[in-house]
Amino acid sequence: MLSIFISLIFAVTLGGGVSIAANSAMPGDVLYPFKINVNEKVEEKLTQSSDAAVTLHLANMEERLTEATQLATKGALDEKTAQRLAENFNTHTRAVGGAITRLQATGNTAAAAELATKFQATLTRQTATLVDMGAKNTAPVQTSLASVLASVQQALGAAAATSLNLSQKTVGE
Questions:
Q1: Residue 28 to residue 165: CA distance in whole angstroms
Q2: Among residues 36, 50, 76, 100, which one has the fewest Cβ atoms lying within 10 Å of its Cβ?
Q3: Closest Cα to residue 51, out of 126, 93, 94, 103?
Q4: DSSP result, the chain
Q5: Could you tell me if 63 and 10 are in contact, meaning their C-beta atoms sit under 8 angstroms apart?
Q6: Which pLDDT score, from 0 to 100, does residue 4 have?
Q7: What whole-number distance in Å separates Cα of residue 70 and Cα of residue 158?
């Protein structure tokens, strides 16, 4: 019985330590899959409200772009990593877009417009950062950044159109 208790304490301590260490992992690090597939999924499941879930998706979306720029700064962003970051980024942008759609569908046009504007501002800021980063890098890194930038620009176009549409609706109300 005592050995089971000690084993349980060891497992919880070790698991918690891995989780904490994984939070700062970058693509290519051993703990990065744990960060993406465990930490972020658990955090998402533990969110208590749809507002908190949207905030989390926005934060994770920005985290992917921060990771891309940090790797690009080091000259370590390759096409495969950039593609994975773009795919994960797209997952989070779809979640934010879904939240905007749900707010609009429930008649909460003002909240949908506010979220769309915040989403657009975040994407605009990140686009500028990625363009600047691309200008400062070598051709291979620029090519890798291009796939991430394409995802951001596509999301930005959709967010801008949604924001404009919702803003016009709230003015008409």
A1: 40
A2: 50
A3: 103
A4: -HHHHHHHHHHHHHHHHHHHHHTT--TTSTTHHHIIIIIHHHHHHH--SHHHHHHHHHHHHHHHHHHHHHHHHTT---HHHHHHHHHHHHHHHHHHHHHHHHHHHTT-HHHHHHHHHHHHHHHHHHHHHHHHHHHTS-HHHHHHHHHHHHHHHHHHHHHHHHHHHHHHHHHH-
A5: no
A6: 55
A7: 26
What are the pLDDT tens digits along the chain (173 aa)?
A: 655 545 445 444 445 556 687 788 999 999 999 999 999 999 999 988 888 899 999 999 999 999 999 999 888 899 999 999 999 999 999 999 999 999 999 999 889 999 999 999 999 999 998 888 888 888 888 888 888 999 999 998 988 888 888 888 776 65
Retrieve residue 165's tokens: 């549409």
CB 14 within 8 A of CB 72: no
Q: Which of 78, 100, 80 is nearest to 155 (CA)?
A: 100
Which token pair is 60? Answer: 């994770």
> Among residues 73, 72, 64, which one has the least CA distance to residue 152?
64
